[in-house]
Amino acid sequence: MKGFHKDTNNHATTLVQHLLSTHRRLHVLEGAESSNASAEKDGVDDLIMLLASIAVAVKSVGSAVRRRDITHGSGTESEPLERVANETWIDCLLYSQRSCILVSEDLENPVVVESNMQGKFAVVFDPLTGRSNPPCQEMGAIFGVFRQMSGGSPVIEDVMQPGRQMVAAGYALYGACTVLFLSLGSGVHGFTLDPALNEFILTHENIRIPYCGHIYSVNEGYSSLWQPEIRELISRFKTEVSLNGKERTLRYIGSMVADVHRTLLNGGIFMYFAHQQWPNGKLKLLYEASPLAFIIEQAGGKASTGLERILDITPTSVHDRIQVVIGSYEDVELVEQLYKGPSTSDPMYLLRRSHSIEEMKDSKEESNVFHKEEDGPTILCSTLPRIA
Ligand code: FDP
């Protein structure tokens, strides 16, 4: 299987094999009596079982999405896809016996798992995101996993945690092929479903987001509904040359998971600002913004509301909405500086940035964003230094 990550025996690595090798690594650490190892390992077997169950939900919903594409317009559609997706996720999580409380985009209230099926993890998820414009939009799923805070019976506080406390997060995308990207807090790994094997195969090992990009992603159809400051910010951002030396260009799929996936692989920025229709922003903190912020930060990017780090926000209700500015570190930093305005931003930031652009132009012959061969597959890296 060309392009897939291979082990030493030249075999492609499946999701389960990858999770098990993580498991073994933690056992070795524990054997070495690392002080953090026991804490890190604590519950890791259960977490792996939980993630394996999530992978089953993703395979199953991915297959329902493909069937829907076949039956669409033929009059043979049965249950609405969002109901199928939600029930599939809940069933898989319950039968894993590793979860204790669940929050779904599709349920008003959290589900407390019955005591005989309970495990240690609180799981938040959007079982079918990007669903409002089928069949033109790429749909997917987003999830985050927290360790139960309380001992004993699960309580709402178990899910009302800031995203930085997640022990795992990820997303799936039901595009031309089904992909599953996840992080257990030490890098991001991407898997692609091989339909012949019905197995997720490691295809993107330890992926890093480029330090800057030239693609920006925002629904500019709302510009008349934005606050004037946001309109001004976007127009300034668009005219700022990207640090990779290219003119900025717009891409907007309208499905956050697909827009963030492209941003992770190619660099750039995805933004969803508050406007008259959504005064706090549209995207949900707990099961959309936080898990994707976790992934982007783990890949070396940045995720913010424009004013504060998304992963530091503690939800006040399970369906809280926020503004999202997420992507390449440099691009998010630039939007934050423009958002804060001259009175509160770093006054030297834009000046330092323009120096960096000049330096970059001087050494134009050296490609500033390049593909670098490491021990594994090809990954995208940036040579640009961080602006101090
Ligand atoms: P959808 O309503 O299709 O599920 O939060 C949901 C979301 O899609 C995001 O995935 C997407 O980025 C956004 O809404 C699109 O909203 P607009 O149509 O307002 O641009």
From TrEMBL:
Positions of the Fructose-1-6-bisphosphatase class 1 C-terminal domain: 210-339
Gene Ontology biological-process annotations: fructose 1,6-bisphosphate metabolic process; fructose 6-phosphate metabolic process; fructose metabolic process; gluconeogenesis; sucrose biosynthetic process
Pathway: Carbohydrate biosynthesis
Keyword Magnesium: yes
Gene Ontology CC terms, in alphabetical order: cytosol
Superkingdom of origin organism: Eukaryota
Cofactor(s) required, per the database record: Mg(2+)
Occurrences of domain Fructose-1-6-bisphosphatase class I N-terminal (ranges): 39-205
Catalytic activity from the UniProt record: beta-D-fructose 1,6-bisphosphate + H2O = beta-D-fructose 6-phosphate + phosphate
EC number, as in UniProt: 3.1.3.11
Assigned keywords, A-Z: Carbohydrate metabolism, Hydrolase, Magnesium, Metal-binding
SUPFAM superfamilies associated with the record: Carbohydrate phosphatase (SSF56655)
One of the record's GO molecular function terms: metal ion binding
Top EC class, one word: hydrolase
Description of how the protein assembles with itself and partners: Homotetramer.
HAMAP family: FBPase_class1
Family: Belongs to the FBPase class 1 family.
Name of the protein in question: fructose-bisphosphatase
Record lineage: Eukaryota, Rhodophyta, Bangiophyceae, Galdieriales, Galdieriaceae
